[in-house]
Amino acid sequence: MAEIIRKDAEDEEWKRRAREHEAQRREREDLERRKREAKERLRQMREDLAELRSKDAARKAREQQEQDAKERVCQQEEKARELKRRQERAAKEQLRRQREVEAERKSREAAEKAQEQLEKTAQERLKMLIIEEKLGFVRGHWAKMREAADKRDANATS
Predict the structure, then answer these.
(1) How far apart are CA 107 and CA 100, in angstroms?
(2) Residue 29: CA atoms inside 13 Å, Cβ hemisphere, count?
(3) Alpha-carbon distance 14 to 124, whole Å?
(4) Total-model pTM
(5) How many helices (H) does the chain have, and how many strands (E)?
(6) What gap in Å lies between CA 131 and CA 135, rounded to an integer?
(7) Closest-CA residue to 32 (of 17, 151, 40, 43)
(8) DSSP characters for 14-52?
(9) What are 32-91's pLDDT values in tens digits?
(10) How many CA atoms lie within 13 A of 22 on its CB side?
């Protein structure tokens, strides 16, 4: 009986050790499982972080492209406004020059017309003077002829 008790005690000891061993094995497996899960969570977190960084970089790149595009549009609009201002200034300058040329032409025409009028007036005056001179000569001639006729009449009557 002592042997049965001893054997029972050994069996109990063996069962206890087996339970301890099983508990340790489960603990190791649990620890390994938690390590794997932690590694997986860490890997997933790294992937998520990398994805977030990638999305952030893409967002920043898009924002920069949009900003660059807005700046280009603003620059193009400013260039267009400047070109329009230059064209308007050039058009105004051309119009001013055309008006100057037209004013000079009209001034020249008016001066030529005035000169022609002066020449015409001078020619008419010259004609009048010539006519008056001829009339004066004719009158003088007629006066001399009358005087001569009067002298002849006076000589003939005397």
Answers:
(1) 10
(2) 6
(3) 160
(4) 0.44
(5) 1, 0
(6) 6
(7) 40
(8) HHHHHHHHHHHHHHHHHHHHHHHHHHHHHHHHHHHHHHH
(9) 999 999 999 999 999 999 999 999 999 999 999 999 999 999 999 999 999 999 999 999
(10) 6
